[in-house]
Amino acid sequence: MNEIEDLKSNLKDLIIKWQETQRRVYFDVQKEDVPRVVGYIFNDLGARFIIVTGMDTPRGIEMLYHFGLDHLGKVVSVRTFIDGDRPEIESVTPIIKGAGWIEREIHDILGVNFLHHPNLKRLITADDWPEDKYPLRLRPSSGKGPEG
Fold first, then answer.
1. Parallel, antiparallel or unpaired: strands 88-90 and 113-115
2. Mean per-residue pLDDT for 87-111?
3. Residue 142 domain flag
4. pLDDT tens readout for residues 19-75
5. What's this model's pTM, rounded to 2 decimal places?
6. In terms of Cα–Cα distance, which of 104, 59, 102, 106 is closest to 80?
7. Which sign, positive or negative, has the C-alpha torsion 143, 144, 145, 148?
8. What residue numbers bound the domain in which 49 lies?
């Protein structure tokens, strides 16, 4: 059994939707399950952490956690959605120390609160940037956007 089969088997109760191509695996989980899933992929499967991405969408803030299973030639992306009006999710920095910087960036430009992050301070925006404005937030309730 390879890592992809292990992943499907061991996390089957948490996986909401699964898509797989020759080189990519995408699957959705609830935001509450992200630390468990990320921990399994990183620690148990030994996947390489690539990056976390975030995007404001009509459905909410879409969060994608990307990992490489290089010896299989696959990238695994774990997707979850968080409420755009109250964007918060558990930090994965206790599991992957290298995630700290990208979580700070996403916090700075999208306004996502990463719970239990060890140092969630500004990384990109200027010190005098308004506290309640996030450059990549598009929803009207955020007060941010291209014209904001």
1. parallel
2. 97
3. no
4. 999 999 999 999 999 999 999 999 999 999 999 999 999 999 999 999 999 999 999
5. 0.91
6. 59
7. positive
8. 3-91
Q: How far apart are CA 111 and CA 88, in angstroms?
A: 9
Q: What's 13's domain CATH number? A: 3.30.460.80
Amino acid at 112: V
User: Residue 58 has which token pair?
Assistant: 């009509």
Closest CA to 111 of 73, 139, 69: 139
| DSSP 8-state assignment for residue 142 | G
Residue 98 falls inside a structural domain: no
- Taking alpha carbons only, the member of 142, 131, 23, 24 closest to residue 77 is 24
List the one residue out of 101, 111, 3, 88 whose CA is nearest residue 51: 101
Give the up-direction half-sphere exposure of residue 66: CA atoms within 13 A in the CB hemisphere: 12
Residue 130 lies in a domain: no
How many separate domains does the chain show? 1
Confirm whether 139 is domain-assigned: no
| pLDDT confidence tier of residue 131, bands split at 50, 70 and 90 | confident
Amino acid identity, residue 11?
Answer: L
* Nearest partner of 37 among 63, 15, 20, 5, judged by Cα: 15
